[in-house]
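User: My instructor asked us to take a sequence, write out its structure as tokens, and then describe one feature of it. I'm not sure where to start. Here is the sequence I was given:
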Amino acid sequence: MPDRDLITEGRRLLAEAGLAPWVVGSARPSGGHYIGTAPADPGDAELIGETAHAELIVHMRNTYGQLLTELEQARDSLASMDVIHDDVISELADVRSTLDEVAAALGVSGEGQGEILARLRAALAGRERPTIDDPRNPSREARP
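Assistant: Let's start with the prediction itself. The structure tokens for your sequence are:
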């Protein structure tokens, strides 16, 4: 996962770099290109010889903040998924433990536990499921 310190450092550097958006401009008579916030005197700007290099640097500068935000959101999402994953693993362990208890109560061990699960599924599939309004349904809400 991306380190929060890297994101924080990136935001600090971005803030110190100054105003955005940056632009690429022609630095005549040198023939190079400047990058920055369109300075009044291109001689005061950072000169870059290749147009492609200047455009890349400007693009990176202008999109870096958005990339940091998306990186932070992705990091937070991954952290949430880790919590959900841990919860699911815990629940699966509980189900496995319950299955082991059922199997032990029925005197079945090892590979026979799969047979117990198959029998339970078959028994549950054959049951009639009452509708929500059926008085036999324990989940129905009390009606006034």
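For the description part of your assignment, you could build on this observation: The chain has a mean pLDDT of 74. Try explaining in your own words what that tells you about the chain.
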